[in-house]
Design a protein that fits this description.
By secondary structure, the chain is α+β, with helices and mostly antiparallel strands. The protein has seven helices and seven strands, in the order ββααααβααβββαβ.
Length: about 130
């Protein structure tokens, strides 16, 4: 299997950082479900996850809300009907790595902690 082509550098969140995640609804239950990794939920790995298992154990988030909204509009059944704004804060044991395309982050954190850091949820719309 080919390598990712770049190193994965995992960092502890030591400064506040805002990221966005698509989710299937706006209830705490639906948002919490979106903040669970494919590994944790038993979903099959993304092709990149096969090259680095650590990615299968992460949650994908993005720096740009509009980008997530556009992705979700194109694939609402797969990505979600809403976008959650997650205000990552130091002191919660959350780790991040700059992976994939520009503005894409892999995030590791306990879903119950991550959901408490959600500051806003907006519908994807048309």
């Amino acid at each position: 299997m080919p390598s990712l082509g770049f190193p994965i550098t995992v960092e502890l969140v030591e400064e506040p950082r805002t990221l966005f995640r698509a989710c299937h609804g706006s209830t705490v239950t639906e948002i919490t479900a979106a903040l669970r990794s494919n590994y944790e939920t038993g979903r099959p790995p993304h092709p990149a996850d096969l090259r680095a298992t650590i990615l299968h154990m992460a949650v994908s988030m993005f720096e740009n809300e509009e980008r997530v909204l556009n992705f979700a509009r194109r694939r609402p059944g797969r990505l979600g009907t809403h976008v959650a704004r997650v205000e990552l804060q130091p002191g919660h044991g959350i780790c991040v790595a700059d992976t994939g395309s520009a503005g894409h982050w892999s995030v590791w954190g306990r879903p119950a902690v991550l959901v408490d850091l959600v500051s806003n949820v907006v519908p994807v719309g048309d």
